[in-house]
Amino acid sequence: MKRGIAALALIMLVGVSLLASGYSNVASIFDLSPSARASGMGGAFVALADDASAAFYNPAGLGWVKQISLSSLFARQFDAVNYASLQFVLPYFGASVLYLDSGPIEASGETFNYTSGGGIVSTGFNIGPVGIGGRFKVYRATSPNDVTGWAFDPALLVVTDIVRVGLLVENAYSESIVFPSHSEDWTPLMRIGVGMTLAAGDGVGVNAAVEGAGLFSGSPRLCAGFETYVDGLAARAGYDGDGATFGLSVRFSSFQIDWAYITRDAFPDTHRVSLEFRF
Fold first, then answer.
1. Which phi and psi angles does 237 have, rounded to 5°?
2. Structural domain spans, the chain
3. What is the mean pLDDT of the chain?
4. What are the phi and psi torsion angles at 75 (to 5°)?
5. What topology is assigned to 2-278 in CATH?
6. How many CA atoms lie within 13 A of 3 on its CB side?
7. Closest by Cα among 137, 138, 190, 198 to 168
8. Cβ atoms within 10 A of the Cβ of 199, count?
């Protein structure tokens, strides 16, 4: 019963403000990170966007991608719903699939479930230090209502030897999601971030970023993250606007395993694990 109440509360929040993140977005599955690395840095990744998750966080970063990679993530989101993602990235192109499923929920004597998914196709290229890109995303919910909608997000990334500046305009162009009794629009949002990369030597360095998310929504939030790495090991800490986040990584050969720990006051803490393979 407790699980059902927690899941119901979580799903209600997902539908209106992404787990109490402070701004409304009908297709909030696209605000759930598909990267444990980025999650460990508080989600402040729009300016870094230097791995497979660039397809999600800032497709303008795809212009700097040099390898083909496949990554996946699984999380038991706040001990209430299952969240999974799969991403495929190659130079100038990326694709992501997101899936959220509550499983059977018992509440007020009834049993129901909440299931939704998202697909993203991203592209980006760079001319010198300036990258331009965009992502086209499709939202689909199958339970309790069967609905579909789409939106397009343009992106920009400026890269120097040390400083990086990223911009993502979410839901700049969109089609309303039509429910049986009403329709809901995608909320226009903006993410702006500044990142810093310092490499002390081969395989040793530091990344840091600060980001404003949900801008122009009426409830903006500040995210920040820090990452230090030595050879195949990395440690992270951050703040995602709602709580502290932490993360670790281990890389060996072409594989990388990332773990993130996300804290919340109102919900149980969440562990996220992702695996990336480069070839």
1. -150, 150
2. 2-278
3. 86
4. -150, 145
5. Porin (2.40.160)
6. 13
7. 190
8. 13
